[in-house]
Protein 1
Amino acid sequence: MKKKIKKIGYRIGIIPIIIVLSMGLLTGGVVLAEEPEPLSASVEVTVDPALPNYLLNDGTGIEEIDWEITYDSTPREYTYEIFDPTDTSVYGPITVTLPGTTPGEGSPVTGGYDWTVPAGSATGTYTVRVEYFSEDTYPDFEGASENTFRVKQAVEVRKFEDIDGNGIMDGSDSEILGTWNVQIWDPGMVSIYNGTMPAVIDVMGDGTYTATETLKAGWVVTTPPGSPSVTRTFVIPDDTEVIWFGNQEIPPEGDLLIHKYIDTNGDSVDNDGVDGVGWTFDVYGPDDLNAPYALGQVTDAYGDILLTTMPIGQYKVVETLMVADPVWKCTDPGAGLTITVNVVAETQTDIDFGNQQQGDLLIYKYEDIDGDGYTVTDPPGEGWYFSLSGPSGIINVGPTDVSGYILVQDLIPGSYTVTEKSGPSPPAGYGWVCTDPGPGKTKSGITVPSGGTSAEVQFGNRLIERLVPTLGQWGIIGMSTVFAGLLVWFGVRRRRLAQMK
């Protein structure tokens, strides 16, 4: 009984073995005692190190794909493929067959590929996918590895020092790094950057972008040429990929105000409240006082000339006298007509020029026929001489003309004294007697106005007949003189004799 059971048990135990072997024969192969290890793969994407966070879509962005496949059996293959942000394949799939090795002796196989992003590619996130297959399961997919990179519009905002001020980044200029601030807004005016230049901005959509730099003191804007604006706009994707802000450093500057006043009373002080309008000045400098800086500058309705943003330094300011009758005299600063002045940084320097117009004095001489002062019937006196004393000093003038006048021109305005000095010889037997103003022959307090003529100063003289004694009259005069002398002598003699007693 036991032997029978053993035989049955033997037969039952061997049946599964027979079945398994039969199946192996039917399939034409042998099942390995150990399954091979699965394949593994990895992929790494490296972008241009100068632009560490993205690739440009201007045709210059290069993607470096580095891959590594580990396997341990007979020939395998893998594919790699690139997909755009919409998961559409833009490159590949590229199939690579790996060399086989002895089972159990597999080792990593590495490789790489550079892919240039085509110009105009869509912006967004791209995927690099490596898929690998094994011979045991081929063509069945076994595994994959992925990595991503970003493609953006190639826009950079940069700053340069515009040495020559032409508004163009050229050979004479140099880029300024990390010291100038710029703020950038997207088409919806949402700030997307606020920091120093150069700035690489994350531009993912089309439209008009705005960038505004913060201007530093002592600098001017030169880009674009002729524009003082610190704001630039650029359109994506139409505009250039590099937006330059150009600035030129300028030396310290100041302002100069030239004021012209009419010095009516000639005291060299602007206290009369009258502005000099329409006066011309020339400015020379800076520092080289023979170098023209601003010529032909004319005072405005307030008597002013304002010159702004002048390089600091020394300047020479020269007044041009107006041509007028009576003439003008510069009282401030004086006859030199010139002021030398220093223009200092960020300051308005004021200078004054004062001018006084001269005046004339009119003298009229008449013959006072009847000795009662001037009447219309009195004829003019020709050939008379006078002297004047006043602000212009002592001046001798004359003679009066046929009409009896002397016009003394271009006198410093003020009070004058006029004195009659001499006249033509009188006829025989006659002499001149001053009747106006009288024996003193002087008139004082004559006012010469600025820019005008004094009131007419009149002097009158009358011819007086001089009587000549006859011979008999001269005898009587002589005898009378002798008698008077004897009387004087006799009186003196008597006083002396009386004193002796």
Note: Helices lie at 2-27, 471-500.
Protein 2
Amino acid sequence: MKKAILIAFAFLALSAVAMMAADLTGTWTGTFTPDGDQPGGAYLVLRQEGTKVTGTAGPSVDEQHEISNGKVENGALTFEIVTENSTMKFELKQDGDEIRGDAVRQHDGETQRAHLSVTRKK
């Protein structure tokens, strides 16, 4: 009997984790602020299946780039946006209907950093 209760509890705990992980699917809008520059727009469309995250991101609905290597692990969302001359790496944290964090890329021999702050579009 105790073993059955433990198995049921473990299943419920895993189900709760899976349900929380599905929270990223949706449209997110906000700001993308390069260090030393003014904030610009940010528009993300994310789809999550388990720990894998796919979708697009960019400054607006009209300018979107595919994200690659998207995943959620230990409460952190990471992904990359690859363009013809650089790769921007994102390290973000979700807190309910907010996602915040930083992006870094190497461009022309220089490290460029930015901050992303978006909320779920309702």
Note: Strands lie at 26-34, 40-49, 52-60, 63-73, 76-82, 87-95, 98-107, 110-120.
Protein 3
Amino acid sequence: MATTTYLSNPTVTVNSVDITDQCTAATLTKVVEALENTAFGATARTYTGGLQNNELTLTLYNSFAASETYATLNGLVGTGTTVTIKPTGSAVSATNPLFTLTLTYLETLPVINATLGELDTIDITFTGGTYSVSTTP
């Protein structure tokens, strides 16, 4: 039985720009690549942690206004940046940690994803970068 729950309403910044009002979904995955260290004579494979290869996928409404989706992301394609996300808009705390990816890489930016009668949304993925967590403001 769950002992705590929260309403999903994260705060997201990309390159110090708050894009929370354009974001409809966010998935942050902490990844440490597995390096096999199995030796002769072993009866099962064993692994040790290698490099981080974290990933953050965002679904955003596409907007071409100043300081919105396109203006914020266009210059970041092919570069490393800092992205932060926390579970709610409340202050950083032990129950609302701030997750940061530093020097995370944006490889692609869908420019238009239009469908008749629907809002234009795009999915972007930041990969790599150093993962850190803060529980103090």
Note: The beta strands are 11-14, 17-18, 23-29, 32-36, 47-52, 55-61, 80-86, 98-106, 121-127, 130-134.
Protein 4
Amino acid sequence: MRLPALQTTDDVDAAIVGLPFDTGVSFRVGARFGPEAIRSASVLLRPYHSTLDVDIFEHLSVVDYGDAPVAPGFIEDSYDRITRYLEPIHAAGVVPIALGGDHSIVLAELRAAAQVHGPLALVLFDSHPDTWDRYFGHPYFHGTPFRRAVEEDLLDTGRSAMIGLRGALYERADWEQARALGFELIPASELHQTGIAGVPERVRQRAGDHPVFLSFDIDFLDPAYAPGTGTPEVGGFSTWQAQELLRGLAGLNLVAADVVEVLPAYDLTGITASAGANMAWEILALLAWRRKHNPKVA
């Protein structure tokens, strides 16, 4: 959005942060180039959100904080680097909106956020619950972050929801283990059958006014709308449906968010990066809406 490129938290409400790491994947690589692609696509965005009736920059001061200095190929080192990069942002009361990067990076994001806010409510838009224990025999990759986060007491699963799950599974336990951890699952089949209208209220009621981390995996969208992603799953959602779901979350106490798994090399049209930029814009609008209607909120 042509935001000022400043690594400062002075008089800042929200910060766009790039997390260009993608060696925590099981299939396609290339999400390290997602932040740049999303930023490039975002030049078409404008500040006024007509549906929420809010001018983002009338209520928020926003900067592009740059990219965390990750170490490609070294996942645990990169986690430490990302967490250290985000810590001063959270400490200053600024809301980071991260651009990924594969979904493994969310564990590092949650570590930084939980240091300030305690265990967070998670609102996840994703095809997958990412609660496996191990993959290729290793505990850290993009299919395990939320299990690790629960083990590290970073999440309040009783306030958390996973929305849009679908696709072929290895076994029934793939989803059952997420439920056993305490997450509420709202599968894609349920959304398609009953419609999306009541889902935001259901999520808001579950989260209450608890600090929320919103994670949007671009594979929530059907690959017809976002082909440039790491693990595309058919039977997903349109960009309009995603927008409506996000807009319905107005009022949540968002303290951090991300948009992940954009792989520009697998989409030469750029529509996936455009979708990612628009989802980040919707999240900014949610922050602005809360500030507009709760002017005393820090």
Note: The CA atoms of residues 97 and 114 lie 15 Å apart.
